[in-house]
């Protein structure tokens, strides 16, 4: 009998708002990396037909040019749409305990806030810029406008970002 092979699929898409400012750093060989967490909300009707809201907090890590773009563009509360892959990592804490985490290693991030709407005046952007941007981990040219994620937004969400 032929052996069945499990497909190697590891693909995640999540939308949410940053729970706090991203943490940017560089590795010992000067590779940029940023970590942040998003809160992804889900609304549903419970057994008594009342609307409820559930929140899922997801950790994100981005590297290289993608990390630099996040440092420039994201703040607490920023809305993002992230696609990437799940990764797990383990380490030993200061008190000697083994720790582990599962997070999303970002491949692409779409910044859902209009560029002029960030509250940080030192972000190097002027209020005239009004497009949404998608940054990919292999993008070498910087920001570009892309609407490929728009199909995942409801009409109400699309109206909010226009």
Give a written overview of the molecule:
The protein has a five-stranded mixed barrel. Strand 5 (79-92) and strand 6 (98-111) form a beta hairpin. It is built from two helices and seven strands. By secondary structure, it is mainly beta. The protein starts with 11 loop residues before the first strand and ends with a helix. It has one domain: Beta Barrel (OB fold (Dihydrolipoamide Acetyltransferase, E2P)).
- Assign an overall shape: globular
Question: Structural class per helix/strand content?
Answer: mainly beta
Largest sheet data:
5 strands, mixed, barrel
CATH topology: OB fold (Dihydrolipoamide Acetyltransferase, E2P)
* Terminal residue distance: 56 Å
Helix content: 10-25%
């Amino acid at each position: 009998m032929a052996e069945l092979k499990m497909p190697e699929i590891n693909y995640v898409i999540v939308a949410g708002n940053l729970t706090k400012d991203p943490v940017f750093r560089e590795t010992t060989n000067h590779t940029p990396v940023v970590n942040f967490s998003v809160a992804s909300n889900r609304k549903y009707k419970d057994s008594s037909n009342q609307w409820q809201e559930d929140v899922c907090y997801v950790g994100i890590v981005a590297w290289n040019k993608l990390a630099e773009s996040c440092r420039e563009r994201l703040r607490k509360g920023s809305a993002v749409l992230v696609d990437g892959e799940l990764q797990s990592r383990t380490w030993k804490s200061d008190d000697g305990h083994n720790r582990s985490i599962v997070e999303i290693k970002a491949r692409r991030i779409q910044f859902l806030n209009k560029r002029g709407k960030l509250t940080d005046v030192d972000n190097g952007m002027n209020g005239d810029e009004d497009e949404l941007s998608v940054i990919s981990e292999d993008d070498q040219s910087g920001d570009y406008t892309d609407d490929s994620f728009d199909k995942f937004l409801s009409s109400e969400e699309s109206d909010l970002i226009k």
